[in-house]
Amino acid sequence: MFDGPEPIYVQIATWIRAQVLSGELGEEEQVMSTTQFATTFRINPATAAKAFSGLVEEGVLYKRRGLGMFVAPGARQKLLADHRKRYFEEVLDPALTQADILDIPVADIVDYVLGRTPRSGGGAATKEK
Amino acid sequence: MSIAPFGAALDSVAVHYPTSWRMTQQGTVARETGGTALDGATCTFPAGAITGLLGRNGAGKTTMIGLLAGFRRPTSGTVRVGPEGYERDPWENPAIVSGVQVVRESGDVMPDEKVGVTLRHYGAVRPEWDADYAERLLDLFEVDTRKNPASLSRGKRSALGATIGLASRAPLTIFDEVYLGMDAPTRYAFYDELLKDYAEHPRTIILSSHLVGETERLFEHVVVVDRGRVLLAEPAEDMRARGTSLTGNATAVDHLAAGHRLLHRQELGPTVMVTVEGSLAEQEAAEAADSGVQVGSVPLQDLFVHLTSTTAQKESER
């Protein structure tokens, strides 16, 4: 856990964002404390605190005095908007570049996309109802 | 009431040991060659942080610790230890040294008395000593308190040392390679306890080690000493950013690595893995992604080995 090339606090922040996006961490739900984080993953508490303060600045988490860190209301929507914007640039573009290299015709890709059954009927969108 | 964490700083510190003669048990005289343990070392240990003091055997780690604890004085230079803004020379300064707990592998215990006697001693000299916590730790580490430290195994003696270090809750606690004798489960239990207790009772902790792999994520700050000099003293994140590993096709990797100082190169058939100094610029990272070169981080352990072995090379070239 957390042994990618980025600094550890960046990886922790990415992990928490992913949990909020997937709905595993609901809004107004309490996040593990820095102490719990530190002992669970054997990292310095200051490293975890740095990740948390970054997420507070982004508006993903907020601090309740004396209680701890909580997921901010509207955090998921905000992350969704942000990640949707970046999806085309960061995920789809490289995939299409790779398809070009492999000489896969555009028609094949379109067919594949249309023929693919969306996972659990469009992912988390149905969960909200 | 707890005492504020201690910071510590060395400023151009040199320690030279004079050549001395010592009487052996056989009655002959043995010559002990002196040498330079520290040579112009300057660094700080930030108050309230866990700092890793890293260096190879004989680099000067233990001498540095001896200075911080007031066990010895430097030949030249200054040593300052104390709460932020009130740092003082620790030598013969009871207000400072009562707040510094050093745990050495040799163990500062009473070897021929029951473990409880040693614990009572520390209870008397450390104002923040937590006797209940010490008992819980000894239970956790399965140390038999009815035994004498001398009759404990090496691992259990290390665990006793770790217990003394943690339960003393000293504003500056230094562990000098204590965990070397412990087995893996005990070491992990020690790291967990250290992090938990540090989070609840913030204080300054220095862990000296040459086994960097297991402990690197515990550090907020690192000081690397090599041959009596301070190679670097900086936040652990900065040290991690000092190296990048590149894996992939030889031509692509070598092209990318050309602009960086090479620390290590390994060939695996047509694939090469190199470690270079510094991190990649945005443009280089894009180039790496395009040419299928995997960019990775370098474990502190590897960086430490590269950094300390390259200085060794430089020295021999002189």
SSE pattern of chain B: EEEEEHEHEHHHEHEHEEHEHEEHEH
Q: End-to-end distance of chain A, in Å?
A: 33 Å
Annotation, overall tally of beta strands of chain B: 15
β content of chain B, as a range? 25-35%
Name the CATH superfamily assignment of the largest domain in chain A.
Winged helix-like DNA-binding domain superfamily/Winged helix DNA-binding domain
Q: Give start-end ranges of low-pLDDT stretches of chain B.
A: none
Record the strand order, biggest sheet of chain A: 1-2
Question: What is the level-2 CATH architecture name of the largest domain in chain B?
Answer: 3-Layer(aba) Sandwich
Spatial shape of chain A: elongated
Q: Helicity range of the residues of chain B? A: 25-40%
CATH topology of the largest domain in chain B: Rossmann fold
Question: Tally of extended strands of chain A?
Answer: 2
Q: Looking at this structure, what is the CATH superfamily of the largest domain in chain B?
A: P-loop containing nucleotide triphosphate hydrolases
What is the CA-based Rg of chain A, rounded? 18 Å
Domain HTH gntR-type (chain A): 6-74
Protein name (chain A): GntR family transcriptional regulator
InterPro entries (chain A): Tscrpt_reg_HTH_GntR (IPR000524), WH-like_DNA-bd_sf (IPR036388), WH_DNA-bd_sf (IPR036390)
Keywords (chain A): DNA-binding, Transcription, Transcription regulation
Task: Describe the protein's architecture and organization.
- The complex is a heterodimer of chains A (129) and B (318).
- With 129 residues, chain A is mostly helical.
- Chain A folds into two domains: 8-74, Winged helix-like DNA-binding domain superfamily/Winged helix DNA-binding domain (Arc Repressor Mutant, subunit A); 76-119.
- Chain A has five helices and two strands.
- Chain A has a two-stranded antiparallel sheet with strand order 1-2.
- In chain A, strand 1 and strand 2 (68-71) form a beta hairpin.
- In chain A, helix 1 crosses helix 3 (45-58) and helix 2 (34-41) crosses helix 3.
- Chain A is elongated.
- Chain A starts with 7 loop residues before the first helix and ends in a 14-residue tail after the last helix.
- Chain B is α/β, with parallel strands linked by helices and 318 residues long.
- Chain B has two domains: 6-19 and 35-235, 3-Layer(aba) Sandwich (Rossmann fold), CATH 3.40.50.300; 241-317, Alpha-Beta Plaits.
- Chain B is built from eleven helices and 15 strands.
- In chain B, the strands form four sheets. In chain B, strands 7-8-9-5-10-11 form a six-stranded mixed beta sheet, with helices on both faces. A four-stranded antiparallel beta sheet of chain B has the order 13-14-12-15, with helices on both faces.
- In chain B, strand 8, helix 6 and strand 9 form a beta-alpha-beta unit.
- The longest helix of chain B is centred in the last third of the chain and has 18 residues, at 300-317.
- The model of chain B has no long low-confidence stretch (mean pLDDT 88).
